[in-house]
Amino acid sequence: MAELLHRTLFVPGPAGRLECMLKLPAPGAEGSGAAVICHPHPLFGGTLHNKVVHAAAEALVAAGLPTLRFNFRGAGGSGGAHDGGRGEQDDLQAMLDHLEARFPGRPLVLAGYSFGAYVALRVGCRDGRAAALIGIGLPITMMTFDFLAECDRPLTLIQGDQDMFGPLPLVMAVAATLPQGARVVAIPGAAHNFAGRLEELALRVGEAVPVELVGGRSE
After folding, report:
1. Is the distance from CB of 39 to CB of 56 less than 8 angstroms?
2. Using CA atoms, how far apart are residues 95 and 217, in angstroms rounded to an integer?
3. Alpha-carbon gap, residue 127 to 100, rounded angstroms
4. Which of 150, 141, 133 is nearest to 171 (CA)?
5. For the segment 33-66, what is each residue's pLDDT rounded down to a tens digit?
């Protein structure tokens, strides 16, 4: 059964194949959506196996969403080379196309951590398949998130209150300027890598899934 619920696959991407891992909810626990989560900066060791990405993905699966995590171009077993967040948006679009083909008509939850949050939110704000967006550990001192001002998707931002790359007051200030609003969830004592706070992070990710997409619990 584990092989059926958790599998590694390669999906064609715009710069070469993209290495992915897909995990399905247990039978009887599946909801009505699907999810994808993006990893942190590959030039600093970010891959789909990152601990924050893994914890968030497990929370999404527990909420009933088939969840895809993948390596951006040039990371792990994915082809191509890092493109500074530009081509990576095309990689994510390929993942959305794959999810749509595998789970036709399902609304999608797009999540990302750090650099992956930039990519996920950037794509999710313009892609009509996105039902909800989850940004984890926004590196707001290193990348601009001005595009959020024109985003109309339900948005949750999960930030450690000790994050040196995304100070919580700055994240809250950005959220306060958004016409559509955003839910900011602070994780007390958490640094950018959420060390020692992964269980709480997972809980907050699960809470960010729209209730209408959440599945039941298997026996």
Report:
1. no
2. 27
3. 12
4. 141
5. 999 999 999 999 999 999 999 999 999 999 999 9
